[in-house]
Amino acid sequence: MPDYAFFHKQFMPLSEAKIGILTHALHYGTACFEGIRGNWDSEQERFCLFRIQDHYKRMLDNCRILRMDIPYSTDELCQLTKELVGKSGYQKDVYIRPLAYKSSETVGIRLHNMEDDFFIVVTTFPSYLDTENGVRCCTSSWRRVDDTMIPPRGKICGIYVNSSLAKTEAWENGFDEAILLTQDGHVSEGSGENIFLVLGGELVTPPSSDNILMGITRDTVMKLAKNELGIDTIERRVDRSELYIAEECFFTGTAANIAPILEIDHRPIGTGEIGKITAKLQKFFAAVILGRNPKYADWYYLVSPKAAMA
Ligand SMILES: Cc1ncc(COP(=O)(O)O)c(C=O)c1O
Question: Rounded mean pLDDT of 143-164?
Fold first, then answer.
């Protein structure tokens, strides 16, 4: 199945979508992106583009940080994505990657006086972490970038050098994932996921002021915890040593879904197995992202491939 792109205002096979080697974003990381899952429901023969409006709203907000202007509204971006998913011909889970970037082919460090461009790619992407068996983590020797350096809320391409350094260090040291701390040593997040802890029966997650990306899955999990399990989430600063004494711990993200953390810095978390609250949240999450629960209709953008092509 060839991957498809919306590029230069046209739909085309991914193999035809090319950029020049002087493109500003390639040299300076001046771009921001989203990752959106299109979950295929084989019974209903349709995709659920999960919380796509929220993803595009975040991207348009982030374009403002980078002084970029994308000539589409959230609704138009959703419509373009729907057409692209239809054209792709996939009938299985897809991953949608929109990216807005400084497209001028010029040398020079700045955000101003430059052209912007935008594309969307539809491809596939298996879960980024092992959600069934859980993951082993380390705290990274790399610190999470600060809002005064490159705004982490911005999902800005250049930031992912920070994430990549941490991820590869963790992997080379035999771990599945890194947990990054802030400059002053508080828990921030994983290389591409937010983090939650169960501490004394309470659900705790670091606040936006600790340089996290304000994850859409994070928000989904907080709402599911409240609505389905009656558990409020406390957003507060988290010390590194609290990771070691947590009863449960897990990552959340569009790429990673809900990934249980079983060990951090060689210390088992809780019993060293997937915790009860984590497992319950995974179950609710898996059902909700298929788009079948009317209670969460606002989160769904349902696309039947035939209708999208019509
Ligand atoms: C650094 C980082 N943190 C957290 C997340 C989780 O965000 P979301 O749940 O919106 O995918 C992501 C993934 O997008 C990410 O790249």
Answer: 97
What are the structure tokens assigned to 178, written together? 């890194």
CA of 253 to the centre of ligand 1 (A): 5
pLDDT tens digits along 28-37: 999 999 999 9
273 backbone dihedrals φ, ψ, rounded to 5°: -120, 170
Please tell me the distance from the alpha carbon of residue 280 to that of residue 248, in angstroms, as a whole number.
12
Cα–Cα dist 68/55, whole Å: 17
* Residues designated catalytic: 155
User: If you take atom 4 of ligand 1, which residue's CA is the nearest one?
Assistant: 193
HSE-up of residue 146 (Cα within 13 Å, Cβ side)? 7
Contact 120, 6 (CB under 8 A): yes
Q: Distance (Å, rounded) from C-alpha 153 to C-alpha 253?
A: 14
Query: For the whole model, what pTM was predicted?
Result: 0.97
Q: Pull the structure tokens for residue 67.
A: 């002084």
Which residue is associated with the tokens 């997650």? 205
Three-class secondary structure of residue 203 per DSSP: strand
Task: Calculate ∠ Cα 22-23-25, nearest 5°.
Answer: 130
CB 226 within 8 A of CB 203: no
- Residues touching ligand 1 (Cβ under 6 Å) are 35, 163, 189, 192-194, 213, 215-218, 252-255
Give the pair of three-digit tokens for residue 124: 């596939």
Question: Hey, which residues does 46 pair with through a beta bridge?
Answer: 41
